[in-house]
Amino acid sequence: MSWTANNLTGIAGIAHGFLGIDEALPPGTLFCNQKHTADVLDAAAAAASCAVGDGVFTGEKTPVAVLTADCLPVLIASRDGQHVAAVHGGWKGLQAGILDNALARFDQAGVDRGQLRIAIGPSIKPCCYEVSAEFASLWPDCNPPWQHTRPAPTRPNALPQPPAMNEDGLWFDLAAYAGLLLAHQDIDAQQVEVSDICTCCHTQALGSYRRRTHWPAARTQQFSWIARV
Ligand SMILES: [Zn+2]
Description:
- By secondary structure, the chain is α+β, with helices and mostly antiparallel strands.
- The protein has seven helices and 13 strands.
- It has a six-stranded mixed beta sheet with strand order 3-4-7-6-8-12. A four-stranded antiparallel beta sheet has the order 1-2-13-5, with no helix packed on it.
- It binds zinc ion (ZN).
- Zinc ion binds at residues 125, 127-128, 153, 161, 198, 200-201.
- The site of zinc ion (ZN) has 8 residues, from loops.
């Protein structure tokens, strides 16, 4: 099972997919040795063995990918289909500026930011992403991407949700946090498509670290890829 985003499907010359745990990448796909960094490598650098980074950018016809469990798989393409990037958006990388760095790659290639289309694939949603008050204190923001009441799953949930850990837990929206960061970088909300699928409670076809902490699973990660074709 895999998923696609409408805003990328609509771009001629681009192929992409948010894969389930049992789906294979296209042959020759490049991805980095991910370490929750803010580094977005050019595909040529990513091709080096064990190159550390959390995003790959390219103008070549080489598929690029990221591996995620509950973090955001962020796929970016220029509307002319000439440049693409795959970015791993965990909270550490987001906070460290990985989206800024990805956008800078497109800037350097001469792509106007208004010409970008960004798709955030299946990731953990606030229905299942409880964080501590200490964690939330990392964002002294007047408009924080979390809420005090646990929201219902975004889709009818086939899987049980993790039990709440705290009576006063906070429910974090990682994609909303990415949206705030993108807005600060002059990306209009209409340029961004966000999947409503929760990796934790929607389907066993997607891996989830958070789900694994409650219910053991053999595989917990999946790839998301994008390519010029
Ligand atoms: Zn959920």
